[in-house]
């Protein structure tokens, strides 16, 4: 059995990027490539919930060797190649013991100890695939349990099960128990908590998650207060705490708690400036700009988006600069400055067309062509150009990866509102019904507020085809609190 010293050194080893896998992705975006992986899995009877974040983690070298389900899928996609050809490490070198037959491991015949970081099972030395709880066919049952717990509001269950050990760490801190000096395991737990929160938000929206996410955020700052021994760990903790503050801020933002969101974003911004983390600072300004637009402060949105662009320019990510240009466009639209908005939109499209790069931040996995279309639709809607807004919103609904359930509901709600205001009540009612169909999976005050506005616009048209059915069903749909 490996000593604790040996185990720690294994975990502290920095991840090495996987350029071979990145080359195989080619011109596909991470989300597009993830869709190809899922399709290939279906072809051979596997069930994997691969998404853009998983692809990013593989390319960053965080997943040195995939589990057996992903191995079978990748070898099916690239026949004649080995895992080593795909840029992965040999399973024996990652797991600290000889690899066993895939059939035995898939049937659960090989016991694997649980990770102190994620609770997942792995070999004696380090995890060979530490992905989110929805990621493989072997975790499909756990996926259903977490989803049901989330949707039924079991806050204690979800905080512990879905957000991981950081939620439990917060309970320990609240009980005034001594906090040991954090190391790589705690930094890893913090980073995993951020990923899990983003995953749950992508699938279910923010309303049921916001209060539960406060526990890991408290734990993150307790870890910072405890102080790490190594500077590299301290840097990871600061970055992770800042990203977690932004994630919690977004949950507040999407659930209509604007003051809370502003406070969390400011906390992340202060953390970024204190540590000189330009990527975190750009992210905090990006979300601040989005919040300012939604809160009716368009001039502040423009200023924050422009500040983010100044900070992000040296980072080398065209996709990040594209998103920030869209944030600026939203501010100009709010100021009724059509020229400023069009210029920012053109810049966003041109930067987007330059493609992805290794410099793209992990948190931007949601930003693909669908989000580009959706944000442009919001700009035209703000400017009152309903026909153009509806055109872009419709494109967004067609382009969105099914993984992002919340965004599908958001774009469809945008489309319904644009159609209603543009004089197409029957089509608006049809799209509104589609949003209502998704509300058993998605809890987002933002989406519900949009749908309520659409219902008010449609009231004078209740005799149009389908409108009365939509209005009646909407009136009988409970609002989340």
From TrEMBL:
Organism listed in the record: Streptomyces mangrovisoli
Region called Disordered, residue ranges: 1-27, 92-141
Protein name per the record: Transcriptional regulator
Lineage: superkingdom: Bacteria
Ranges that cross the membrane: none
Family matches, as SUPFAM superfamilies: TPR-like (SSF48452)
Gene3D superfamilies per the UniProt record, alphabetical: Tetratricopeptide repeat domain (1.25.40.10)
Sequence ranges of Basic and acidic residues compositional bias: 122-141
């Amino acid at each position: 059995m490996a000593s604790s010293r040996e185990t720690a050194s294994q975990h502290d080893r920095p991840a090495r990027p996987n350029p071979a896998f990145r080359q195989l992705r080619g011109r596909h975006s991470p989300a597009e490539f993830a869709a190809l992986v899922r399709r290939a899995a279906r072809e051979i009877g596997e069930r994997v919930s691969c998404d853009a974040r998983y692809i990013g983690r593989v390319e960053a070298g965080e997943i040195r060797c995939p589990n057996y389900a992903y191995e079978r899928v990748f070898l099916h996609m690239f026949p004649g190649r080995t895992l080593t050809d795909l840029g992965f490490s040999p399973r024996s070198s990652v797991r600290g013991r000889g690899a066993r037959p895939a059939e035995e491991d898939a049937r659960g015949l090989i016991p694997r100890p649980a990770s102190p970081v994620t609770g997942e099972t792995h070999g004696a030395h380090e995890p060979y695939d530490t992905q989110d709880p929805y990621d493989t066919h072997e975790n499909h049952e756990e996926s259903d349990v977490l989803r049901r717990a989330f949707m039924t509001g079991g806050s204690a269950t979800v905080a512990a099960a879905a957000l991981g050990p950081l939620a439990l760490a917060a309970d320990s801190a609240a009980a005034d128990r001594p906090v040991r000096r954090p190391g790589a395991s705690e930094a890893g737990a913090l980073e995993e908590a951020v990923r899990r929160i983003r995953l749950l938000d992508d699938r279910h929206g923010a309303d049921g998650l916001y209060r539960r996410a406060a526990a890991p955020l408290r734990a993150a700052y307790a870890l910072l207060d405890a102080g790490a021994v190594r500077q590299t760990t301290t840097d990871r903790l600061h970055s992770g705490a800042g990203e977690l503050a932004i994630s919690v801020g977004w949950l507040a933002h999407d659930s209509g708690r604007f003051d809370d969101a502003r406070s969390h974003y400011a906390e992340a911004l202060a953390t970024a400036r204190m540590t000189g983390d330009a990527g975190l600072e750009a992210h905090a300004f990006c979300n601040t700009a989005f919040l300012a637009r939604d809160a009716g402060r368009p001039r502040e949105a423009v200023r924050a988006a422009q500040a983010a662009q100044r900070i992000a320019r040296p980072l080398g990510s065209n996709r990040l600069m594209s998103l920030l240009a869209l944030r600026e466009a939203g501010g100009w639209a709010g100021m009724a400055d059509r020229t400023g908005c069009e210029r920012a939109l053109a810049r966003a499209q041109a930067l987007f067309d330059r493609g992805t790069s290794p410099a793209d931040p992990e948190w931007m996995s949601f930003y693909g062509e669908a989000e580009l279309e959706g944000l442009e639709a919001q700009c035209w809607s703000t400017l009152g150009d309903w026909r153009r807004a509806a055109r872009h919103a419709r494109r967004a609904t067609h382009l969105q990866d099914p993984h992002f359930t919340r965004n599908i509901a958001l774009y469809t709600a945008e489309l319904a509102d644009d159609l209603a205001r543009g004089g197409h009540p029957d089509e608006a009612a049809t799209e509104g019904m589609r949003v209502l169909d998704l509300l058993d999976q998605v809890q987002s005050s933002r989406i519900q507020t949009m749908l309520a506005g659409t219902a008010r616009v449609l009231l004078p048209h209740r005799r149009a085809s389908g409108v009365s059915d939509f209005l009646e069903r909407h009136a009988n749909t409970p609002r989340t609190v």
